[in-house]
Amino acid sequence: MTNAAWETLSNQAVAAAGLGYFVALLVHLAEWAALRQPAREEAALVGADAPRSVTSGEADDDARRTPAERIAFLGRLGFLVTCIAAGAHLVALVGRGMAADPDRVPWGNMYEFTVSGTFVLTLMYLGLYRRFKLAWMAPIVVGFVLTTLMVAVIWLHEPVQPLREALNSYWLVIHVVSAVIATGAFTLGGIASIMYLVKMRAGEDPQGWLGRVPTLDALDKLAYRVHAFAFPVWTFAVLITGPIWAHEAWSRYWNWDPKEVWAFITWVVYAGYLHARATAGWKGRNAAILALVGLATLWFNFIGINYFSTTSQHSYASEQVPARYEQAL
């Protein structure tokens, strides 16, 4: 295949992934809607009040699903469609890398980083789906991934280009892989923290889809475990591989680049979150709020710096290369 064919395949795969996530979102929203049906409907369908006689229409009656069965079916269907969409998502990333000359990892600009980050978030969600019973999180994750992909395609898309000289390093793989993994995990933990606050506000016995959300204690533990996994990965990306790569590219370990500063701010906030939980016994509401502060700094670093800063040397985030970056090369 030619490079142009690979790029076309990548663009088509992104569109297919977006369509798949959209269908999965609709299925999961239907699942949530089914949760709001009165419990008496299930009793009526089961027919517990009167004995059933064998008739010619019994097979049809048996084919009718109770509300619980419909909910379970929609949940399985949504998960399956999400898996298919994630497969198309992976094809988009592979095609993007193969479209370059020479072939490279698909992390050369903001568009590619966004597509990669959303894929990692989806992959982590699918991997933890059964272990942590994340069925309740499905429409939130799928909706977030779909929205972020739409933003990437509409506003961030750029043609495939070779990596710039400073990015053409094996440290790109090490640094960006760890940063993307940590970003996906922090986002997943942030969703758990948001739902903790939502469920706490809803009261002791919420109805409808909130009734499927785990208990406050379970949400708090889930958020802590995910953040505890993400933090050392972020530390490796920000405080180890990042400075080493910066020294290799610009002959300095620290340049006071806006991306570097905000990445460190994010590290400090999450360090405070884990420290507060371990020493001061912070749990529940206070821990969730602090985790969301960390998530806000993370996504401001990811998106905001690229729009509000004109001095960042991190060329993967923007097509515009600052003059001092060109001089450094």
TrEMBL record:
<keyword id="KW-0201">Cytochrome c-type biogenesis</keyword>
<dbReference type="InterPro" id="IPR017562">
    <property type="entry name" value="Cyt_c_biogenesis_CcsA"/>
</dbReference>
<dbReference type="InterPro" id="IPR002541">
    <property type="entry name" value="Cyt_c_assembly"/>
</dbReference>
<dbReference type="InterPro" id="IPR045062">
    <property type="entry name" value="Cyt_c_biogenesis_CcsA/CcmC"/>
</dbReference>
<keyword id="KW-1133">Transmembrane helix</keyword>
<feature type="transmembrane region" description="Helical">
    <location>
        <begin position="169"/>
        <end position="198"/>
    </location>
</feature>
<feature type="transmembrane region" description="Helical">
    <location>
        <begin position="73"/>
        <end position="98"/>
    </location>
</feature>
<keyword id="KW-0472">Membrane</keyword>
<feature type="transmembrane region" description="Helical">
    <location>
        <begin position="110"/>
        <end position="128"/>
    </location>
</feature>
<feature type="transmembrane region" description="Helical">
    <location>
        <begin position="12"/>
        <end position="30"/>
    </location>
</feature>
<feature type="transmembrane region" description="Helical">
    <location>
        <begin position="135"/>
        <end position="157"/>
    </location>
</feature>
<feature type="domain" description="Cytochrome c assembly protein">
    <location>
        <begin position="107"/>
        <end position="309"/>
    </location>
</feature>
<feature type="transmembrane region" description="Helical">
    <location>
        <begin position="287"/>
        <end position="308"/>
    </location>
</feature>
<dbReference type="Pfam" id="PF01578">
    <property type="entry name" value="Cytochrom_C_asm"/>
</dbReference>
<keyword id="KW-0812">Transmembrane</keyword>
<protein>
    <submittedName>
        <fullName>C-type cytochrome biogenesis protein CcsB</fullName>
    </submittedName>
</protein>
<feature type="transmembrane region" description="Helical">
    <location>
        <begin position="261"/>
        <end position="280"/>
    </location>
</feature>
<feature type="transmembrane region" description="Helical">
    <location>
        <begin position="222"/>
        <end position="246"/>
    </location>
</feature>
